[in-house]
């Protein structure tokens, strides 16, 4: 479904991605973990062409998107849904209009069909009845649910999750994770998730890719990551201050 080949990206002379290689199979749910500021979001932006690499390729459904023009990129992006870290909802729109927005922008569906799809999406995320509320009237967890409903409304082939549980308490975190699993099971999308939720993420995804110093250090199932003997992986997942990963005391 997605293949990342020797991807490199620098900003103002600082190399963030140093040759990332990763294959993501159709229908799988994969998490990308790693240090804060280590390039995970930069990598995610390359998957939908928001950033162009200095070197390397991103193959989506057999098509190299790295050199596509704007119109061709827009065609590829129609395959994607995105759940942004902060939700990225329109404050001046009702919840109904937030979720309906992609359909109104990208399709010519009649309003009654849009209404049916919005209601179904809200039911999928357990939020029927909030259609006429505004984002400011909802809790953080509810806004995350709305963001997921909006991402799924066009039935995308790929959904990107940029730290979807940031700022949530443990109960809401588990609720969002369950929702991702349930909607993944229903829609069958390919999911790529940036997460710091160790060990909670183990119960959600099929595989985990550990990004460290600009490259994918290790890829494996949650079980393989949990029992990895790689020193860098062990330090990261245990949160130890001792090891090859720099801490505040060594910076």
Topology record:
Layout: E1 2-11, E2 14-24, E3 29-34, H1 40-47, E4 55-60, E5 63-64, H2 70-77, E6 80-83, H3 95-106, H4 111-124, H5 140-152, E7 158-162, H6 170-187, E8 190-194, E9 207-212, E10 215-220, H7 222-226, H8 231-238
Parallel strand pairs: 3-8, 3-9, 6-7, 7-8
Antiparallel strand pairs: 1-2, 1-4, 4-5, 9-10
Verbal overview:
- The protein is of the alpha/beta class.
- The protein is 34% helix and 24% strand.
- It has helices at residues 40-47, 70-77, 95-106, 111-124, 140-152, 170-187, 222-226, 231-238; strands at 2-11, 14-24, 29-34, 55-60, 63-64, 80-83, 158-162, 190-194, 207-212, 215-220.
- Strands 6-7-8-3-9-10 form a 6-stranded mixed β-sheet, with helices on both faces. The chain has a 4-stranded antiparallel β-sheet with strand order 2-1-4-5, with helices on one face.
- The radius of gyration is 19 Å and the shape is globular.
């Amino acid at each position: 479904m997605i293949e990342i080949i020797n991807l490199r990206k620098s900003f103002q002379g600082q190399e963030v991605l140093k040759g990332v290689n990763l294959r993501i199979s159709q229908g799988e749910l994969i998490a990308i973990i790693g240090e804060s500021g280590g390039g995970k979001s930069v990598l995610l932006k390359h998957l939908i062409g928001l950033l162009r690499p200095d070197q390397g390729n991103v193959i989506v459904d057999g098509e190299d998107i790295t050199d596509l023009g704007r119109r061709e990129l827009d065609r590829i992006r129609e395959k994607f849904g995105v759940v942004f870290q902060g939700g990225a909802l329109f404050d001046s729109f009702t919840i109904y209009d937030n979720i309906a927005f992609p359909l109104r922008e990208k399709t010519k569906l009649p309003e009654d069909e849009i209404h049916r799809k919005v209601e179904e999406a809200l039911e999928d995320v357990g939020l029927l009845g909030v259609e006429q509320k505004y984002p400011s009237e909802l809790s953080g967890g509810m806004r995350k649910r709305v963001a997921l409903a909006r991402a799924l409304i066009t039935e995308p082939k790929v959904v990107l999750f940029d730290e979807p549980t940031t700022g949530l308490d443990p109960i809401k975190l588990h609720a969002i994770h369950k929702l991702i699993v349930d909607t993944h099971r229903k829609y069958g999308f390919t999911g790529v998730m940036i997460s710091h939720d160790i060990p909670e993420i183990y119960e959600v995804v099929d595989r985990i890719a550990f990004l460290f110093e600009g490259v994918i250090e290790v890829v494996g199932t949650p079980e393989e990551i949990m029992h990895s003997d790689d020193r860098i992986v062990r330090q990261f997942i245990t949160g130890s201050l001792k090891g090859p990963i720099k801490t505040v005391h060594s910076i």
